[in-house]
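Action item from last week, closing it out:
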Amino acid sequence: MKNLTLSKSIETATTQELLAEIIGQNSASKILATFDSLSFIARFGDNELSRLAGVSTKRARQVRAAMLLAKKLTVDAPASKPMLDTPELVADALREECRSYGVETFHLLLLDTRRRLIRHVKISDGTLDTLLVHPREIFKPAILWSASALILAHNHPSGDPTPSDADVKVTRDLIRAGQLLKIDVLDHVILGQRTTERPKDFSSLRELGFFYL
């Protein structure tokens, strides 16, 4: 297969054709034969990706740069303040960024009085199944940016978005802290992965009834 030409629109290109435009057809084929999903690529360093896929370090670095640039565009792009008043919208806002993380990461979405996004703050990284956050880390940026409300979010690298007992406890502690500061904690959304048995790739602790103290 040749690389894309001007006779074919890049908007209709396949994943392999787009990747071939960046690193060449041979390297693109090796990468896609090695990884089931492109989202795993950003988890590896240049040397490790080069070794696993059998491509040069230069090619590995090029494809990782493209993946990380796409992630930055997802995070930095919004020019307007999107409305985040449902768990589905929260999941849509964070899905692409969280897809490549191999550990749990905790995120904070700061909202104005109309439930529009003021700022997205990544609070901390954890391990495969553990994440520690402190109320001061949550409410310091909320106060700094004059947020009226906030939404908590983190990912489960296992793919199962079911909240753990620790998730529930942390959420309830933060709800109480928010009540003292007059900053509403609206929800805690956990992102995972869809399966045939689990059509939703996220869970909402509010929808599950954990916000009733």
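Closing note: The first strand starts at residue 105 and ends at 111.
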